[in-house]
Amino acid sequence: MKFPGRRRHKHYFPVEDKDPLINQLGSDSGLKHSYICGIDQIVVDIEAKVDQAFLDEFGLQRGMSQVIESDITNALYERLKRDNMIDYEFAGGTIGNTMHNYSVLADDRSVLLGVMSENIKVGSYAYKFLCNTSSRVDLNHLQPVDGPIGRCFTLIDDSGERTFAISAGLMNHLRPESISQSLIENASALVISAYLMRTTANETMTQATLQAVHYANQAGVPVVLTLGTKFLIEQDPQWWAEFVEKHVDILAMNEEEGEAITGFNDPLLAADKALDWVDLVICTAGPRGLFMAGYVDDRFKRETEYPLLPGAIAEFNRYEFSRGMRKADCKNPIRAYSHTAPYMGGPDTIKNTNGAGDCALAAVLHDLSANEYHKLNVPNSAKHEQQAITYSSLAQISKYANRASYEVLVQHSPRLSRGLPEREDSLEQSYWDK
Ligand SMILES: Nc1ncnc2c1ncn2[C@@H]1O[C@H](COP(=O)(O)OP(=O)(O)OP(=O)(O)O)[C@@H](O)[C@H]1O
Ligand SMILES: O=c1[nH]cnc2c1ncn2[C@@H]1O[C@H](CO)[C@@H](O)[C@H]1O
């Protein structure tokens, strides 16, 4: 496990200290390991640049993720091939991307649950998925199926807006009995997306997901839900709000999804509303950066050293130096919020925004699992007198998440090809110092 974010202060994890006890944590031998577990519809992204006329030709709604039938799939694929329009074919899936990026950032194990074709030909989509996934992502628990995985046509227009057309294949055929109870119970977190609830009558993915959520809820393993797309939530916001309140501990969304589920278009107010239901909220806001909201017990709250920010909640970032806690673990829970602008104001040229949010979530998961890892290996550390769910403060985590998203914006794929540098150059360091 690499420790998260850029650490400049001693009170963070002193990985470079010569202390022999602490050094045990540097060498991996004899340490207990934690992992996170995610479920996804296993898909390969097929990316192409298109215009509105192209979307109209295939009856696709701009900006949506929609499932398409086989006749549309075939016509779409033929057309993309004929006109030589395919830019990239790369492993995708919102949770697949998140697990991959988590494993790259943390240099540690994650487990991906879903389906995989049992017979794989070199060069097939299943083959591509496996080749483009970090070796730190444990794929041994995938359920074999007799047929293809899914394909996600990722159609990008001039404004950078993405339209997803999903050809499902057998991606939704994960069965509840394929979910190992002990695997879920021993995970540091179970990560799911709203897409997993979009299934038809003979598809079992939704039941499998609910089974996993049930195991996690029973065992007190945090359930992390990412909302995927606003269109899915808008169909029944009430159902989603109830599901989140009953079963979810950590909610990740962008501002549009935040509005769909809470009714608030201000990301801070949306995050605040979601805090009625969950313990920790991450709300990404594109060029406006990222908001986080969480709970801290009054006696553990820490005041920010940054300027207090105006907003719909006055001076909302006052306690952003606090580590997040479960509300139920707080005697006197208070709400802490943080906002961080994009790393370096965002790159000069954005190559791709696809998956920037997934990568922010991967960084947050890294921080959560680092806390579990530290707790497992140094249980009597003063750090754990506070029963926190995060390793770092909300302010530090959101910087780290923005830093990780930046890396996706400057490359072509939603999946990181390498971890973050151990040391940033001097210009970048000012971001961490602020
Ligand atoms: N145009 C931009 N300029 C600067 N930073 C950006 C821009 N777009 C995204 N980012 C960075 O990426 C992070 C996540 O972006 P965004 O809110 O677009 O995620 P998202 O819509 O959930 O993405 P996805 O669903 O593709 O994963 C932001 O918090 C910000 O740090
Ligand atoms: O229905 C879906 N299920 C799973 N993943 C999806 C779906 N639609 C889009 N994406 C995934 O979202 C990622 C960017 O956030 C893309 O890589 C795409 O594969």
TrEMBL record:
Cell wall biogenesis/degradation in keyword set: no
GO biological process, one term: GMP salvage
Keywords assigned by UniProt, alphabetized: ATP-binding, Kinase, Magnesium, Nucleotide-binding, Purine salvage, Transferase
Catalyzed reactions per annotation: inosine + ATP = IMP + ADP + H(+); guanosine + ATP = GMP + ADP + H(+)
Binding site for ATP: 284-289, 357, 402
Pfam families, per database record: PfkB (PF00294)
Pathway where this protein functions: Purine metabolism; IMP biosynthesis via salvage pathway; IMP from inosine: step 1/1; Purine metabolism; GMP biosynthesis via salvage pathway
Cofactor(s) of this protein: Mg(2+)
Amino acids binding GMP: 93-97, 198
EC number(s) stated in the UniProt entry for this protein: 2.7.1.73
One function term, GO molecular function aspect: inosine kinase activity
Start and end residues of each Carbohydrate kinase PfkB domain: 134-293
Domain of life: Bacteria
Keyword Transcription: no
Stated family: Belongs to the carbohydrate kinase PfkB family.
Described function: Catalyzes the phosphorylation of guanosine and inosine to GMP and IMP, respectively.
HAMAP family linked: Gua_Ino_kinase
This protein's name: Guanosine-inosine kinase
Natural source organism: Pseudoalteromonas byunsanensis
Taxonomic lineage: Bacteria, Pseudomonadati, Pseudomonadota, Gammaproteobacteria, Alteromonadales
